[in-house]
């Protein structure tokens, strides 16, 4: 059994000094910094052309594939952020919905798929009176037969957006 002793060491009942087996906070912080530095993505070489998805705003979890690989690709909701400026697109819901679909298209194409692979969309509107404008942009983003869609009214969206869209795509 260890008894607390001086700085950074422990004493056993027999009075033998030894170092604690658990790493100190300073060691843990050092190891975390090293791991974080290693896991950072390397910058693209200057001659490399960035992929279209790098132009889309980076949500916290852009895509997710079920464990085991699976055929489904889950895309995080996208608000109408203009990748060039990083700001919310101004205009009506039609313009904002077109921008959200353009952002999602970039992510889908970066995964090697097309909008034809999309099987489900969830659309979040701050005002259901904007449904017709959103629907027109939805029809412009897809070809028939349209993917299944759920539209939900919400109290608010990030950055004051009027629409947010998330999708599920199937490979193959």
What structural category do the secondary elements indicate? alpha+beta
Radius of gyration: 25 Å
CATH fold description of the largest domain: 60s Ribosomal Protein L30, Chain: A
- Which strand order spans the largest sheet, edge to edge or round the barrel? 4-5-10-8-9
User: How would you sum up the global shape?
Assistant: elongated
**Relative helix content:** 25-40%
Biggest sheet descriptor: 5 strands, mixed
Q: Could you name the CATH homologous superfamily of the largest domain?
A: RutC-like
Separation, N- and C-terminal Cα atoms: 60 Å
Order of helices and strands: EEEHEEEEHEHEE
> At CATH's second level, what is the architecture of the largest domain?
2-Layer Sandwich
Which CATH class of the largest domain? Answer: Alpha Beta
- Strand tally: 10
Which percent band covers the strand fraction? 25-35%
Question: What does this protein structure show overall?
Answer:
With 172 residues, this protein is α+β, with helices and mostly antiparallel strands. It has two domains: 2-39, no CATH class; 52-170, RutC-like (60s Ribosomal Protein L30, Chain: A). 26% of the residues lie in helices and 25% in strands. The strands form three sheets. A five-stranded mixed beta sheet has the order 4-5-10-8-9. Strand 1 and strand 2 form a beta hairpin. Helix 2 packs parallel to helix 3. The radius of gyration is 25 Å and the shape is elongated. The relative contact order is 0.15.
